[in-house]
Amino acid sequence: MEGLIKGLIDVALGDDDHADRNEDRQRDERSRSSWAEVVSGGQDEGRDGNHQRGHGHYQSAWRREDVSEPGRQQDEWETAGSRPSRRPQQAVNHGYETYGEGANRQTKWRKENEENMGSWETVGKKPHKQQHKMDHWNGYKRPASEQEYSSEVEIRGSIEPTEEELSDLSQACTKLWDLDLNRLVPGKDYEIDCGEGKKVYQKDDMAQGSLFSWLGDDVLRRPTFSRFCSLLDNYNPDQGCREDVTAEEKHEQAAFIEEISRTAPIKYLYRYLTAKGVVSQDYEEFKRLMTGMWFNLHGRGGTSGSSSAFEHVFVGEIKQRGKEEVSGFHNWLQFYLEEAKGKVDYQGYIFPRRRGQTPDSETQVLTIQFEWNGILKSVSSTLVGVSPEFEVALYTLCFFVGQEDNYVQLGPYHVNIKCYRLGERIGSVFPISE
């Protein structure tokens, strides 16, 4: 643990030499291990404490590979069983322009996003509420010290972890859920239509409309939501393309961490990690650590400086080696925005493993299938309506004090927070509904 924390602090403080050495050591690594089953086929029961499967259960559509086995290429977790997209192959670049050549190619997402902010509409059962232009996003490009932040937010309940929470990760995650006062309320702040269910390998589109029917006008104006959304256009979706991070984008990153650091979930996370001796009691150093672990670039897909934990987990990437596949992309806000712009085609939910747990408009943990820019994500999972600060706090907590599998309680939901590492970095982390 001491070596892990030292490495993360070096990364957070901008120790590029350390990061380069780490990438060199880990380059050409691959894992032979495969994922455990994530969701079952159909709605049959029959799993015991060892997660045994009956005849009707299929193996996971996800598999983990290219992580940490010495001597092989470090890379990504592929989606098995993907079907060819029904859309033309050139649809991958639909909606954004590229310039330059090879790994230095950059995307022009920002211009398109600014144009769309004033007129997004979602095709669904209910007309999508029009969103106003988010002019204040431009202010987030200024240095973090020159920006205005929200006051210290309301906190209900103690943010000091109890002894029980310090000894039980599930109780700590439950506490984070309770502290997420920014979490949206289904039916009041947004509405979803899950459509029909399917098994991972089924090809039919079981959702006639969009997943999101509407989102309240004020949601994207909430400080942490707004700053989170301002980051989403900073990345090239091609996994093997080296990212060029501008000074303005670095300011956006620092400003986002500063904003969420004023909220209860992040304050609880900080107190939890200090109580565990994982981080120092310097809150400013903790913020730098958070900025580094989520935003510093590392190699993925055979190209150094092409990915980050934030990009993979929240934004999503498109694998270019072999068959094109979507990897990462586990955030509901990114899904909503891309669906509103017509870049995401929702295909339906994946049948839950247990009977009686069919998702509906109130469900906030979903396992779904969709296409992004014409490329299939055969199975994905996401927490719907939670705040950005909650997800960052939850995933950071599981990375530092959890394991690969973290079976926890989030409000009414039993979930497994899957957490994969790329050396001293977050490789991927996301929820799996239990």
Automatic annotation (TrEMBL):
Residues 1-95 are annotated as: Disordered. InterPro entries: ENDOU, EndoU-like, EndoU_C. The keyword Disulfide bond does not apply. GO terms for molecular function: hydrolase activity; lyase activity; metal ion binding; RNA binding; RNA endonuclease activity. Its cofactor is Mn(2+). PROSITE patterns: ENDOU. Residues 15-32, 62-75 have a biased composition (Basic and acidic residues). Keywords: Endonuclease, Hydrolase, Lyase, Manganese, Metal-binding, Nuclease, RNA-binding. Pfam families: XendoU (PF09412). Monomer. PANTHER family: PLACENTAL PROTEIN 11-RELATED (PTHR12439), URIDYLATE-SPECIFIC ENDORIBONUCLEASE (PTHR12439:SF11). This is EndoU domain-containing protein. It comes from Trapa natans. The lineage of its organism: Eukaryota, Viridiplantae, Streptophyta, Embryophyta, Tracheophyta.
